[in-house]
Amino acid sequence: MTVLGNLLVMVALCKDRQLRKKKTNYFIVSLAFADLLVALLVMPFAAIELTTGQWRYGETFCLVRTSLDVLLTTASILHLCCIALDRYYAICCQPLVYRNKMTPVRVTLMLGGCWVIPTFISFLPIMQSWNAIGIEDIIEDRKFSNITNETYCVFLVNRPYALICSAVAFYVPLGLMVLAYQRIYVTAMEHARQIGTLQRAGSAPDSYLSHDQQGSSRMKIETKAAKTLAVIMGCFCLCWAPFFITNVVDPFIHYSVPWQMWTAWLWLGYVNSGLNPFLYAFLNRAFRRAFLMILCCGDERYARQGSYVPSRPYSASANGTSIALRLSFIPSRSYSDNGKRILSSELESQDSTGYNTDRLSL
Q1: What is the pLDDT along the chain (362 residues), one digit of tens a residue?
Q2: Domains of the chain, residue spans
Q3: What is the distance between the alpha carbons of residues 176 and 188, in angstroms, rounded to a whole number?
Q4: CB-based contacts of 68: which residues, under 8 Å, 6+ apart?
Q5: Is 150 helix (H, G, I), strand (E, B) or coil?
Q6: Longest dimension (CA), the chain
Q7: Is the pTM of this model over 0.85?
Q8: CATH number of the domain at 2-353, please?
Q9: Which residues pair with 145 in a beta bridge?
Q10: Residue 103: CB atoms within 10 Å
């Protein structure tokens, strides 16, 4: 599932020119590549060791496999953090600020950092055995079983490495994601209230919703925003928090955590690589259209229909939170002509930023 989901995301970007125009999609595809490598280079050997109960590929390859594990899973997490920051600038800032912050050079540097930073906590210290300083005897005892005469690929870390690695790979990205999504949620709620105000102040009240319907629509917008962000953060924390909490605690309790718990938490983290395509691509309308085109062998029924033209002003049910978020790009001007000027300026700004209506529910 992880291979197919992430491979489909990468093929979609290669075949769909419209997807390549949006900067966020480069983070999503790089994330898919990292998760694809997790499925191809890390999971198979972990599964073999789990099912056979031993490691048959030598000590050197054990270090390489462990380094790849740390490198790719950390890269995956850092990509999630970059996606959150990109959404923050796109949704909470004005278009000019977003263009200044997310230039092609900066996007390239952020993507490079997602791959370079993990090497400093994976291959460099692990191949040099810095993680084993002070606990060499414990590692040697667990590598070989005198009872079953079998060898294992053991990866234990000392206290400094556990704290530094966990902070870089999880706790710092988690803090940035929480701050970014909290601001996104507050912005979405503010824009939902603005929609209600504009609807009530319109010069053609018969064309808008009644007061009760407005409150209900606004509640739906707020609920969808909360659910979207809750699913993203909930899945991330559920998959990785148990592992990194155990990773920090274990060195301070004399490595007494049973291997069964370590295995369970590690595979729960691997599951996140299979969920990411669904959370960050399959929920995106543009990606879904590209997937249908690929799976249906280019059926023209799923061809892109050009630019989005709303059928009526302020249809709150058309795309949930995305309508509220589009108001973040409306310049300050008077609201008149039944909202036509607003929609016109909105679409112009939307075209200038290159963002579609799925900015929140990517």
Answers
A1: 999 999 999 999 988 888 888 888 899 999 999 999 999 999 999 999 999 988 989 999 999 999 999 999 999 999 999 999 998 888 888 777 888 888 899 999 999 999 999 999 999 999 999 999 999 999 988 888 766 678 889 999 999 999 999 999 999 999 999 999 999 888 888 877 887 777 777 644 555 445 555 555 655 665 666 677 778 888 999 999 999 999 999 999 999 999 999 999 999 999 999 999 988 888 788 888 888 888 887 665 655 444 343 434 444 333 333 433 443 333 333 333 444 443 444 343 344 344 343 444 44
A2: 2-353
A3: 18
A4: 37, 41, 42, 122
A5: strand
A6: 84
A7: no
A8: 1.20.1070.10
A9: 150
A10: 12
Rounded to 5 degrees, what are φ and ψ at 134?
A: 90, -10
Angle between helices 58-92 and 172-200 (to 10 degrees): 20
Count of C-beta atoms within a 10 Å radius of residue 340 = 10
Residues 43 and 182: their CA atoms lie apart, in Å, by: 33
Tokens of 94: 């004005």
Q: What are phi and psi of 150, to 5 degrees?
A: -120, 155
Collect all residues with Cβ–Cβ distance below 8 Å to 35 and sequence separation of at least 6.
Answer: 2, 6, 72, 76, 273, 274, 276, 277
Q: Which residues pair with 150 in a beta bridge?
A: 145
Q: What is the DSSP letter of 133?
A: T
